[in-house]
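Work Package 3 (structural annotation) set out to generate three-dimensional models for the target panel prioritized at the project kickoff. During this period the team completed the workflow that converts sequence records into discrete structure tokens, so that structures can be stored uniformly alongside our sequence database. As a representative example, we reproduce one entry of 299 residues exactly as it appears in the project archive.
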Amino acid sequence: MSALSPVNQTSFTDLELVRRGKVRDVYAVDAERLLIVATDRISAFDCILPTQIARKGEVLTALSRFWFERLAHVTPHHLLTTDIAQMPEQINRHAEELRGRSMLVRRTEVFPVECVVRGYLAGSGWKDYQRTGEICGHKLPPDLREADKLPAPIFTPATKAEEGHDENISEARMREIVGTDVTAHLRDTALALYRAAEAHAHARGIIIADTKFEFGRAQNGEIILIDEVLTPDSSRFWPASEYEPGRAQSSFDKQYVRDYLETLDWDKRPPAPPLPPAVAAATTARYFEAYRLLTGHEL
């Protein structure tokens, strides 16, 4: 890994900034396309941390590209290219800053729900199960342990929040938001994507405990997969060789950062505390290892 300076945010006077999310800066290219730039910002407990994770944006972009291509047989997606040389001139002139962390994508009307799929009992799902025996309306068997594999993957949607916490909702509530037909399509597609990805990852030594997908309606009316896909930011990746239900698992994702933050006297409200350099460097290493294992290549 080369020691490049982390990118906290981008700003271009000749590109129109559409929005700045927790991690991504999104620019308008034209009526049909957007530029999505993955910075090295990291969020935890829905707060953006003041410390960046070096080269994190490169991992998110390269891994999303890998999954978009690998899962294209399951659903169409928004990615046009990650090659700066194939992008318009107004982007190409910023190649040095954008290379490796940028996606040219189709514009869509984004559905305002996170399509979460869980194959294992962890995170907020584990907390909900302990309290109610259910997750988002799914009644689960009694006496499950933390990190147990579920009898079958379950679809547990959530509302999307630019600020503050996403909220787990039931499929019934999702139908009220996006309609019955769209809910069924998104659920079935998300489950199919998870099953295909989990099978690949498991063969490569990684358990995908859970993940979230986003979808949008393209200008031709087609429902397509958007945003990032199956990255350490949007998924829980556990090393299969160390898997042991009944406890929290070691991981290749930002759970490592969450675990560090849990040791601090912090109320999980902004401003978030900085990360020590050693924690930031170890997080970069985990992201790179996830990419290597899943793709079979070095970044």
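The mean pLDDT is 94.
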